Amino acid sequence: MTTSRLEAFSDGVLAVIITIMVLELHVPEEPTLHALWHDTGPGLLTYLLSFVYIGIYWNNHHHMFQLAEHVNGAVLWANLALLFVLSLYPFTTAWLDESIIEHGFDEHTPVVVYGVNLLAAAIAYYLLQLAIFRAEGADSRLREAVGSDLKGKLSPGLYILGIASAAWIHPLVGIAFFVAVAIIWLVPDRRLEQYVVQHSS
Amino acid sequence: MTTSRLEAFSDGVLAVIITIMVLELHVPEEPTLHALWHDTGPGLLTYLLSFVYIGIYWNNHHHMFQLAEHVNGAVLWANLALLFVLSLYPFTTAWLDESIIEHGFDEHTPVVVYGVNLLAAAIAYYLLQLAIFRAEGADSRLREAVGSDLKGKLSPGLYILGIASAAWIHPLVGIAFFVAVAIIWLVPDRRLEQYVVQHSS
Amino acid sequence: MTTSRLEAFSDGVLAVIITIMVLELHVPEEPTLHALWHDTGPGLLTYLLSFVYIGIYWNNHHHMFQLAEHVNGAVLWANLALLFVLSLYPFTTAWLDESIIEHGFDEHTPVVVYGVNLLAAAIAYYLLQLAIFRAEGADSRLREAVGSDLKGKLSPGLYILGIASAAWIHPLVGIAFFVAVAIIWLVPDRRLEQYVVQHSS
Amino acid sequence: MTTSRLEAFSDGVLAVIITIMVLELHVPEEPTLHALWHDTGPGLLTYLLSFVYIGIYWNNHHHMFQLAEHVNGAVLWANLALLFVLSLYPFTTAWLDESIIEHGFDEHTPVVVYGVNLLAAAIAYYLLQLAIFRAEGADSRLREAVGSDLKGKLSPGLYILGIASAAWIHPLVGIAFFVAVAIIWLVPDRRLEQYVVQHSS
């Protein structure tokens, strides 16, 4: 069973997710830069953050399935679970956006929920990786390439710190954590990339 | 005539269907967990159920067209009929969701209509399978692999029981049937999978 | 230059068009079958009609590019022009739907505009065919397969009759013409299909 | 690392962008041609302009990745940056549309913002080209094919002139510049096309 249709379907879902978030942007009520800043500014920033996250998942997903060779039912469903969690980003992003427009950075609940969504995606991605390891057996090229996976282990911890900070310190501290994780991942994952370059037939 | 473009188009449609359902989620009016539970909770559960159903159809569609080799006009249109019925899921899901938010589980009509949508999809899928059998003739690999198709025969009966329960007993009993069918299908279809593994060239 | 990416992009656009039309369906305001019939019935029928039309175009597009071998700039832009016209279907369908809900079948303007959209799509499709003929030169397999193209010549005439009927006789007569053309096309285009079967390598 | 999945994902995103813009079209409130002209006319024209721009980018993207052979992390992220900027078109187009409906062509801010979006896309495209050049090294076929790239150098200048005109002369002068650039690009890019034809294996 090849991975190509699974990749194509995932690409389709991620492409729609990444794009429908733009529907949440509020068209300013007045034709002025001030209204643009006030009505659309927060939406633009939260959209950018979620876009980067979806981009990171697409990127990693792309690398992961270049090395994965075997797909079974467990992998298909783990992949769908990841797509489900990612498909909630437009919703949690919209709530975060509306909360910032109406209440500034005073409300912590939407930030906490956004962080829980990020954390859930990290867990779903990890489970997908496990499902591929199991499908491929002992000589999995992916397992070898992933290695110690520092970023993958660090991210959930940072998400949890961000959630806790948003809940008990200040929503902005939580957001700062979520931005930091995105930046960590933006630095390209040379580990997988090098492995692909070295072991590609 | 190859099946690849039919699969790509179906993937595209299913990817959009699965993702636009998230647009129906109500952003809570207050930035509190209580508002999230009240405004978005029912939508999240109905979205999850419909997402799983679309995932099941994508999964089965994927397996079916791995074995199908011949596509003719009847197969193309049977496939479009299936996509049409599936494209109504966002609508029937949204109605179910709004009904639950406004009336709790007291109203049976949206549950019945949701069940009819599920039943219609099962029938459309069955017709698509028949169209492929007919296009492939006596030595269809798909026909051989599908075999007695217990799940496929069981599901419509359970949908009808669910519809009847929702109409005459209680909406929640109907929903319980629909959840049960989804769980039955989540158990991976080892029959087809094994056949593909054994007979793949 | 191969046709595969042009086909993939067109599939993506058509998949989105076909699916976002469902967003126009009005969720009934009451949880009753009567409200479903009144609020959603017209939308369901106009959606079905437009879905069938998009399906027909996808189908014909699919057959056309199985025979087309050469793609140049003119073909790319003729294809985009077709996609633009088709992307207006959700809009003209929504207007038709709202007009029927509010005014019954008494208003002719939305029916006329819907017919003009259908006619524009037929013209765009014809221009795309011409562009492919020109790109392929004298020995175009597509030109040979299309032959006299009775349906393609008949449809614009029927659209014009439908538009005129909607404008001067009654909107329902116009809609009857548009339904009739859809049914004509639903009968599979054996001409192209046979040619593909006979000449496929 | 092949370019095929990057192209497929970009196609998906562009297909969704190009199509969700149609959701911004206002369904006329009255079933008359006058209401269609007044409520939908500006939206139709701005939609057409943005559709042509997305079509141009798809076209150029298509040509570019036919010549690109190497994809690395920088190319992936430069591509995502381009998709992000292009995904804002539905938003800036909707604002332009609403401004024209409510204020005619008197308001310059939405025109300026639309122009800034066009300019940002041109810059992102240029950065993507640079990233490919760098990934491919000295013997990049793309670099050779692009050559002096007159259009690519001209466009940002014309966008800036359009933005300045919209800000200090009249919004319509700005729009005229943006239409002019679209027309320049509509003339097919024979340079790349010829190169592809000559050097395709």
Polypeptide structure, described:
The structure is a homotetramer of 201-residue chains. Chain A is an all-alpha fold and 201 residues long. Chain A has one domain. In chain A, helix 2 packs across helix 8 and helix 5 packs parallel to helix 8. In chain A, 55% of the residues are buried. Chains A and C meet through helix 1 of A and helix 1 of C.
| Helix/strand order of chain A, N-terminal first | HHHHHHHHH
End-to-end span of chain A in angstroms?
A: 20 Å
Helix content of chain A: over 70%
The biggest sheet of chain A amounts to: none
Shape of chain A: elongated
Structural class of the secondary elements of chain A? mainly alpha
- Catalogue the unreliable spans of chain A: none
Approximately how much beta-strand content do the residues of chain A carry? Answer: under 5%
Average of pLDDT of chain A: 86
Please work out how many helical segments of chain A DSSP would assign. Answer: 9
**Most extensive interface between two protein chains, with residue counts:** A-B, 34 and 35 residues
Q: Radius of gyration of chain A, Cα only, in angstroms?
A: 18 Å
Number of domains of chain A: 1
Oligomer classification: homotetramer
